[in-house]
Amino acid sequence: MTVSSAVDLFDRLATEAADEWAAYVDHTFVQQMGRGTLPVASFRHYLVQDYLFLIHFARAYALAVYKGQSLDDMHAAFGGLKAILDVEMDLHVRLCAGWGLSAAELEWAPEAKATLAYTRYVLETGLRGDLLDLHVALAPCVVGYAEIGTRLAASPSGLAAGNPYRSWIAEYSGDTYQEVAAGARATLDRLAARGMTEQRFPQLLTTFRQACRLEADFWQMGLTRAD
Ligand SMILES: Cc1ncc(C[n+]2csc(CCO)c2C)c(N)n1
């Protein structure tokens, strides 16, 4: 049986994994960014690790090029890879500079265990499986930040002039990032519509759940400045 697309795949995964999803998008780190009370040292620790995360995220898109089943798939993944390498990394390095982190500090930072666990889990899931497995592993990361941005922008102090994290919130709640997230959801639906069988759903849900847990651990690592 092929899965009906009455409910999109992302919504189905997030509904079934509601606890893990909530623990990720409503983590203490996120709440404190919204209120502007997050310690600067925690945010800086997070930014350094996010630099390392983004490098592996680019590798995951390179894997998506390799796992493509058509030239269209390969072009779509290549577009994502190019955007990260040509645009996102530069933006991130500039954001870090604004928080007093030099390019050398980013380059030489040791990778925290939470960064290692999350990024290698995504890559391994993609290596072992097909393009749908890989995109399900990537979905919490891409779509979750859009939800977090939207929630924080609507919160009382999210975009207040005195909130030091307002530009981060503005970035992820902005139209450009919201479109990236909508694209990730559409990709999941496109891949599922190719004939995903209902039998695959439990395995995909396990992957989605794990990725949410690893995202929550990533926030926790930032909060506690864990190595
Ligand atoms: C731990 C962590 N999870 C998700 C994102 C969000 N994100 C992932 S890739 C990317 C670039 C464009 O797709 C963005 C913004 C992040 N930065 N760090």
UniProtKB/TrEMBL annotation:
Gene Ontology terms describing biological process: thiamine biosynthetic process; thiamine diphosphate biosynthetic process
Gene3D superfamilies: Heme oxygenase-like (1.20.910.10)
Source organism of the structure: Azospirillum brasilense
Catalytic activity reported: 4-amino-5-aminomethyl-2-methylpyrimidine + H2O = 4-amino-5-hydroxymethyl-2-methylpyrimidine + NH4(+); thiamine + H2O = 5-(2-hydroxyethyl)-4-methylthiazole + 4-amino-5-hydroxymethyl-2-methylpyrimidine + H(+)
Top-rank EC class of the record's enzyme: hydrolase
Pfam families with a match to the protein in the record: TENA_THI-4
Source organism superkingdom: Bacteria
Residue span, Thiaminase-2/PQQC domain: 19-223
Keyword Transmembrane helix on entry: no
NCBIfam families: salvage_TenA
Alphabetically ordered keywords of this record: Hydrolase, Thiamine biosynthesis
Secretion signal span: none
EC number: 3.5.99.2
Job of this protein: Catalyzes an amino-pyrimidine hydrolysis reaction at the C5' of the pyrimidine moiety of thiamine compounds, a reaction that is part of a thiamine salvage pathway.
One function term, GO molecular function aspect: thiaminase activity
Family per record: Belongs to the TenA family.
Matching InterPro entries: Haem_Oase-like_multi-hlx, Thiaminase-2/PQQC, Thiaminase_II, Thiamine_Salvage_TenA
Protein name, entry field: Aminopyrimidine aminohydrolase
One Gene Ontology cellular component: cytosol
Pathway in which this enzyme or protein is active: Cofactor biosynthesis; thiamine diphosphate biosynthesis
